[in-house]
Prior knowledge:
single chain; mainly beta; Jelly Rolls; 9-stranded antiparallel beta sheet; about 5% helix; globular; disordered N terminus; disordered C terminus
Amino acid sequence: MNSLFRKVSLFIITIPILTFSCSDIPKKTTKTTKANASLASDIIPFFDHWNLILGDGSNVGIANNFENKDFLYTANDGKTDWVVFKAPNGGDTHGTSNNTRTELAQLKKWSALTDAKLTATLKVMNVSATGDARVAASHSVVVGQIHSADGHENEPLKIFYKKFPGHEKGSVFWHYEINTAGEDNAGRWDYSTSVWGHDFSVVGSQEDTFPDEPVDGIELGEEFSYDIEVKEGVMTLKFSSPNHKTKSFSKNLIQSEYATKNDIPLQTQKLFVPIGQDGVERENAYADEGLFFKLGSYNQTNGKSPEINKNWCSGAETHGGNIKKQYEDGNYAEVWFKTANIYVSDAAYSNKGYFTKND
Length: 359
């Protein structure tokens, strides 16, 4: 296994994201003032653990004492200082992704067999105002991830917030992406689990026809928290919010439950199999790969035609990549973080010298 993890040290600090992934202005506006703390690294003092990518595709690196008024800055809602992560629907993207992001990527890599934790408290302030309602990714943003640094570089965890235009409440859900068996990753797929509101599979019947609003959903500007812990091969998730029931989940990351065609769940058969994404997972899932956390605003709405991929390509307004125009008419994702903490145990492979390039 050591040789597998040594390969990860050859990766550059930020690893390209391989993905098929090709907002609504809140009705209740939040009065903002300049934050008491002038920089993001003053509010969440852990930026030396991360590499920052901005919504124009640029790589900032370690972002202590950094701000960018278009993508990463601070604000105060009258009570608390927040770090603002903002990303338009269209513009230069990072790696092979079709989606923009203002997002932190953890520098150190670790094994699912060891102990790693990420916690955060946040609120989503905007998701795209446009997008084809039949496309599952439209009007959504990813606010936290676990990403693989090896093999197919797939994602055992993505935490989403999604809200359709005209709805007061949106949904929080999380995804597990299979670590596809074999050399061809084209058949990979996600399985979506609801936390509050709907899951990823609930879409509109027509381009501009939306499903019913979730009864137990989360509003824009409503605070919630997630706790992610990986230990001895098992990922444990806890989601909490002041006005909602706390929800907990667990997922084995080193033993697959999707290793045969018969294991493909009904949700996947409806969403992904019709477009050719019908792969199976390697039996040991992510056991042999280095993993790392990501946090921020990874906008899932883009301007790609739904004809390319009806789950990930939204056909949303991008104004030809003009960021100012997108911000003016609500075609962006904006996420505010109040607190965040990260922990990787001393037993993690990254701390044992297998990832010395990034340590």
